[in-house]
Amino acid sequence: YERYLVKKLGAGRKEFIETKEKLQGWDQADWKKSIQVFEELHTELAKAMSQGLKPADAAVQVLVKKHFEHISLFWTPNKESYIGLGQI
User: Fold this and answer.
1) Handedness of CA 71, 42, 37, 64 (dihedral sign)
2) Which CA distances in Å does 82 have to 21, 71, 79?
């Protein structure tokens, strides 16, 4: 993802620096837990989509909040960057 983003947005962005700082102390167990959380969230979001739930649905908003909080472990998204994440 980093290579893709550097190619698309350019190197040296504050978000890249922030991410590297936040992840500096992560070990293999941290990465495994993070991947597990992402997989669970993505599975639940896909399930909500297949059920035809709308973004404004309370259950979907709970999932989006959890996703946003997990993403925030890596970097601090604003509205535009969080929307952009969904587009890639």
Assistant:
1) positive
2) 19, 9, 5
Render 1-38 in DSSP notation, one character per residue.
-HHHHHHHH-S--HHHHHHHHHHTT--HHHHHHHHHHH
Is 70:34 a contact under the CB 8 Å cutoff? yes
Mean pLDDT in runs of 10 for the chain (88 residues)? 76 80 93 96 96 96 96 91 85
Q: Look up the pTM and report it.
A: 0.80
The whole-number pLDDT of residue 6 equals 75
Q: Are 43 and 66 in contact (CB under 8 A)?
A: no
